[in-house]
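Hi there,

I know you've been waiting on this one. I reran it after we fixed the sequence typo, so this is the corrected version. Both the input and the resulting structure follow.
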Amino acid sequence: EVRLVESGGGLVKAGGSLRLSCAASGFTFDNYAIAWFRQVPGQARLGVSCIRFSDGNIYYTNSVKGRFTISVDNAKNTVYLQMNNLVPEDTAVYYCAAPGLCGSYLSRFEYSNWGQGTQVTVSS
C-alpha cells in the first residue's frame, strides 16, 4: 500500500516561509518520481514541483521558480517543499503524489496515489 502523509501547512503573511513535508511508505524512492500539486476550490489540481529519482531531474511551475525548493531525504522516505517569499496566490491545498512522471511538465493524470492535503494560506 502506497501511503503519503503531508504536514507543515498553515497561515503565513506575504513574504513569509513554510516548509511542507510528505512522509511516504509503500514504495521506494528509486522508482519514477514524487511531486507536489496544489488546488484552489473550484479549480483544477495543478502541478507545483516534482523530482525524478533516476537522475534528480527537478521541475517547477513558472510561478514558483526561484521561491520554492523541492528536496528528498531518502533515509526518512520524506520529500519536502520549502516555500519562501510566499504570495497570496500561493494559497491552496497542497498535495503530495507518487509515483509518477517528472520531465518537462507535470500532470496530475500521471500520478496514482495522493496524500490527504495540507492547507496553505497566505495573507496580504
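Quick highlight: The mean pLDDT is 96.

Best,
R. S.
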